[in-house]
Structures are given as structure tokens and as C-alpha cells.
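C-alpha cells for chain A. Residues wanted.
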């Protein structure tokens, strides 16, 4: 049984449920980030910047990587004429590498992330089944040309965020902080669905 207001049959049958799912994932991203940052803020700056052997080194490095990847994907999505909320991002200079540290101070990072998460929620709210079938053409960081359906690429955006937030929770445990439950189900239960 699904723990939400979507029945299994509506999820299987309708594309509207895909847009609802992606809208939920945009809210989840914002919700999980807020909870995570409350825990990260309990650490001294040195502990946030300590190399913990993760792929992007530190908590700060991993959080910045998520931000960089989000900017890259949102700028690619912003090339779609119907994705008006994202067009301001599409005119920004792109990050040079996936390891760029856009925000060396955690408080600046959190403020920037909150603005970006609002934009992602706004973007999720404007998604339609028709828009999810738009083809997005882009170049990856190596300059290779790719294309994909917007709906599939947005799913990747949210999966990527969740993957790296999981790494951050592990690093928080290493630093002696219990990150608490960041499961999607917890948010769904809090929303009363």
C-alpha cells in the first residue's frame, strides 16, 4: 500500500501522478536540506571542512557538489522555452568543475541553498505531463553532447541530491552528530498523506 494520496492504479495509469511525484520530490529536497543543515550547523567550521575520505572530501565539499550539479541541471532545463522560472540560472556562468566550492562559508551556503530550493519547488510546481516529454539537449562537463526527456532528467536531479545527502549523513555520524531521519516517508507522514 502506498503511504500517500496517490493510489497505485493512478500512479501506474496517469502521467499526472508523475508530475505530482516530481513536485513531491522538490518539496522533499527542500525539507531534507533544512533538516540536514540544522545538524551541519552544530559543527565548528573546521569539522565541516575536514576531509573525511568521501568522494568530494568534506561535508562542505559534498554539499557544494550537490549545489554545482543542481545549477548545471537547472541551467540545462532552463533552455526549454516553457521552463521560465529557470531562465535566470541558464544565463549564469556555469561552474568550471563538479568540485567547485561556490560557498566556502556554511552560512553563505545555507542562504544560497535556501534560494535555490525555492526555485526548485517553483519549477516543480510548473511541471506538466506535456513538459515532461520535452527533449533537452545539453553538453556534459566533458563537452559531450547528450539529450534526454525533461521528466527523466528531473528524476535524475532528485536522485543525485538524495545520493549525496546520504554521504553527508554518514560524515555527520563520523563527526558525532546524529542527522536524524531524512527518509521521504517521514516527510510524507508529516504532511499527513
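Reply:
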Amino acid at each position: 500500500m502506498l503511504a500517500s494520496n496517490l493510489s497505485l492504479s493512478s500512479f501506474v495509469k496517469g502521467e499526472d501522478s508523475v508530475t505530482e511525484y516530481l513536485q513531491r520530490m522538490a518539496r522533499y529536497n527542500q525539507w531534507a536540506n533544512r533538516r540536514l543543515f540544522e545538524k551541519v550547523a552544530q559543527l565548528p567550521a573546521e569539522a565541516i571542512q575536514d576531509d573525511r575520505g568521501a568522494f568530494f572530501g568534506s561535508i562542505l565539499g559534498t554539499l557544494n557538489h550537490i549545489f554545482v550539479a543542481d545549477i548545471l541541471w537547472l541551467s540545462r532545463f532552463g533552455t526549454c522555452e516553457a521552463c521560465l522560472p529557470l531562465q535566470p540560472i541558464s544565463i549564469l556562468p556555469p561552474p568550471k568543475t563538479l568540485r567547485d566550492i561556490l560557498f566556502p562559508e556554511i552560512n553563505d551556503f545555507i542562504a544560497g541553498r535556501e534560494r535555490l530550493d525555492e526555485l526548485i519547488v517553483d519549477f516543480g510546481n510548473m511541471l506538466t505531463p506535456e513538459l515532461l516529454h520535452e527533449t533537452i539537449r545539453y553538453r556534459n562537463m566533458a563537452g559531450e553532447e547528450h539529450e534526454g526527456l525533461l521528466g527523466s532528467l528531473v528524476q535524475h536531479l532528485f536522485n543525485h541530491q538524495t545520493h549525496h545527502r546520504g554521504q553527508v549523513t554518514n560524515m555527520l555520524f563520523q563527526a558525532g552528530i546524529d542527522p536524524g531521519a531524512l527518509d521521504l516517508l517521514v516527510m510524507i507522514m508529516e504532511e499527513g498523506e
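The beta strands are 135-139, 145-149. Confidence is low (pLDDT under 50) at residues 1-13.
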